[in-house]
Amino acid sequence: MTTPHAAPSRAGYREVFAVGQFRVLFTGYTLFLGGETVKMLALSVTVYAGTGSPLLAALAYVAGFLPYALGGTLLLAYADRWPPRDVMVGYDLVRAAVAAVLAAGLLSPAAMLVLVFVTGIPGAVASAARSALLPDLLDGDRYVLGRAVFSMAAGGTQVLGFAVGGTLIAVLGPHGALWITVASCLLSAALLRLRLVGRPCRGTGAGYAVRETWRVNRELLRRPAIRSLLLAQWLPPALVVGAEGVLVPYAARIGMPGSAGPLFAAVALGMLTGDLVISRLVTPERRERLAGPLALLLGAPLLGFVASPGPVIAALLLAVSGFGVAYQLGLARRFLEAVPETNRGQAFGLALTGTMTLQGLFAGAAGALGEAAAPGLVVGAAGAASMLAVSTLWRVLASPGVAHEAPFRALFASADSGSTTPPAHCHGPCFRRGERPGRNRGDANVPGSVIGVLRERLSGWLCHPTPGGGTARLQNSCQCLPLFAEGRSGCGDPASCLPTEVRDVPQRMETL
What is the pLDDT averaged over residues 21-41? Predict the structure, then answer.
């Protein structure tokens, strides 16, 4: 019997792109990436030409990304409250209007920065809606491959987008290139509106969106299964981004400042290759088992920067590090299964918000450390910190069979509500959380220590076998699972039944 935590059967990219709705969503995402790359490059050039300030030029480049942190903490509730197609189309139209104002050249550089920052805040909601829509279009391993395709598109944009964007700016000028962004936004909006099937909103929340966003974020972070998967997605790559923050000083330090660009491209190329290889050539089950080793690969090559290698060796080390980002493919399905359906948009938005926020913080910290230490040492320290984070999170990364808590909470909701009546699926002697099973309850053949651990783990009603049982039976499936290795066979009296959602009981029993 297939369990919720068993890897699905292997899929191929042909199956992914055979889904017409995915092709529409992917095309819109590609237009989004291209338009944003050209816009941020053109804005950076425009601000620098108008002010001569490298700091303002750098702020102009990141002005479209910093608002994600703000939008992710204030507005993510709308990702589930509003239909996803409407959210994406609406944001494309906002982006088109902003790019048109920038292209017209009517604003001062400071006003440009403010406009881009403010209008970028809803970007977190649109990205969350897009990410949450993907599982509706693709199931099983096709969903993981779809995630890989999106990731490869982002990596390809880093490799090719800057070169194409720079060429457009050189040929058309920054204002002329911005009209390309306007066209891409309008094309994306039209494509999504006309070709993407509308779907209803997931959530039914009411009241202030900010309050709802904070409430759901807290609830998500309180759940150990979700919190651990979020940390596993956030920390290892965010620490590595700190190393990328000092690549420009590193290139200057080794006497080849012109090599900074190829070093950044090596990271993106490694990410692109890793996503392609791991998603295409590795089976789903092995992909999840490799999450831990691949995560270690993020930081391990960066230790070599302590020796200040030349640009070729440095690029190879960075490419190998970028390859390790593919570890996130092994977490994709598990995270999807862990989050509640009604809050899926906000959960994906929280994952993206945390990623971008921590990457910005660690990049700034690495830059500050670079003021006092050699860039090579900073890169090596970032790699070591990433490996330390992976070792701390190893149980999450290397244990795809760890149970999620959501099914258990739903299963035993009656116990938490104060009910004194055993759940309907219990057919034998039961005890509530807080009760200690004793022989007077007719459980002479059940080790109390095991039941006690189970009681704490499941936090609610537990049904145990009657004397002579020694087996657990999954309701609706009649699969008998030996609990205490007493050598008995057959279901006998179905005294302990769990809904079919809880299919990882055997693994949990083995752990206990």
Answer: 92
Eight-state DSSP code of residue 460: S
DSSP state of 225: H
Q: How far apart are CA 314 and CA 381, in angstroms?
A: 15
Dihedral sign of CA atoms 64, 68, 74, 77 in order: positive
| SS3 sequence of 241-302 | HHHHCCHHHHHHHCCCHHHHHHHHHHHHHHHHHHHHHHHHHCCHHHHHHCHHHHHHHHHHHH
What is the average pLDDT across 79-86?
93
pTM: 0.70
DSSP state of 158: I
Q: Which of 48-62, 109-123, 214-228 has the lowest mean pLDDT?
A: 48-62
Structure tokens belonging to residue 56: 């303002």
Tokens of 405: 């808590």
| Residue closest to 321 by CA, chosen among 346, 340, 304 | 304
The amino acid sitting at 28 is G
Pairing verdict, β 430-431 and 462-463:
antiparallel
Q: In the predicted model, is pLDDT for residue 118 greater than 80?
A: yes
Residue-range domains of the chain with CATH: 1-218 (1.20.1250.20), 223-404 (1.20.1250.20), 407-511 (no CATH)
Give the three-state DSSP class for 483. coil
Integer Cα distance of 24 and 197 in angstroms: 10
Distance separating the N- and C-terminal Cα atoms of the chain:
22
Q: Is there a contact between 197 and 83 (Cβ–Cβ < 8 Å)?
A: no
Highest mean pLDDT: which of 151-165, 172-186, 414-428, 471-485?
172-186
Per cent of the chain over pLDDT 70 is 72
Are 169 and 47 in contact by the 8 Å Cβ rule? The answer is no
Write phi, then psi, for 463 (nearest 5 degrees): -110, 135
The pairing of beta strand 471-474 with beta strand 462-463: unpaired
Give the three-state DSSP class for 482: strand
Strand blocks (E) in 342-488: 430-431, 462-463, 471-474, 480-482
| Other beta carbons within 10 Å of 136 | 15
Say how far apart CA 435 and CA 420 lie, in whole Å: 12
Cα torsion 310, 314, 315, 317: sign: positive
